[in-house]
Amino acid sequence: MAVASEVSGAIAGASAVHHIGVSVASIDGALAFWESFLGVRARWRTTLDRPYLAAVVGIPGVSIKAAFVDLPGGVVLELLDYQTPEKQANPEATPNPGNVHLCLAVADAERAWRRAVDCGARPVSPGGPIEIDGGPNAGARTAYLRIHDGVTLELFQRPPA
């Protein structure tokens, strides 16, 4: 068993989150949400088809339409539209193994929630953000929404100081 380090990720040699990759059904559909919601254009759009990529992802001859979107805080969201006929949508239910959600810290959960809904997100809880009633985040407000491809977006407003 590894000994805990005082620096998160030090044992693994990790220093930061480089990017978060999300496979999507349509690069244009995913960008329609993210560019509208964040109010920024994708930093970069391209088709990834270099030979190394097939070895990395394990799909011979793969071609992927990709876009990079700058998230608040300096992390990059990498949207990946694999150009393969056999891709299938995953079930969107949160408890399914492999389900991942992306959480954005927001100043006003209600305002961010309304903007996300206006941009096409489907609320998991239709009443809007919920106040956390216990634990280390007591007083915070949070909400889950489903965006493109069943991806879950969480909005998190820190508790009052």
If you had to describe this structure to a student in words, what would you say it looks like?
There is one protein chain. The relative contact order is 0.17. This protein has 3 helices and 9 strands. With 161 residues, it is of the alpha+beta class. The chain folds into 2 domains: 19-82, Roll (2,3-Dihydroxybiphenyl 1,2-Dioxygenase, domain 1), CATH 3.10.180.10; 101-157, 2,3-Dihydroxybiphenyl 1,2-Dioxygenase, domain 1 (Roll), CATH 3.10.180.10. The model has no long low-confidence stretch (mean pLDDT 90). Strand 8 (141-146) and strand 9 form a beta hairpin. Helices cover 18% and strands 28% of the residues. The strands form 2 sheets. Strands 5, 6, 7, 8 and 9 form a 5-stranded mixed beta sheet that branches. It has helices at 27-38, 51-57, 109-118; strands spanning 19-23, 44-48, 64-70, 76-82, 101-105, 122-123, 130-131, 141-146, 152-157.
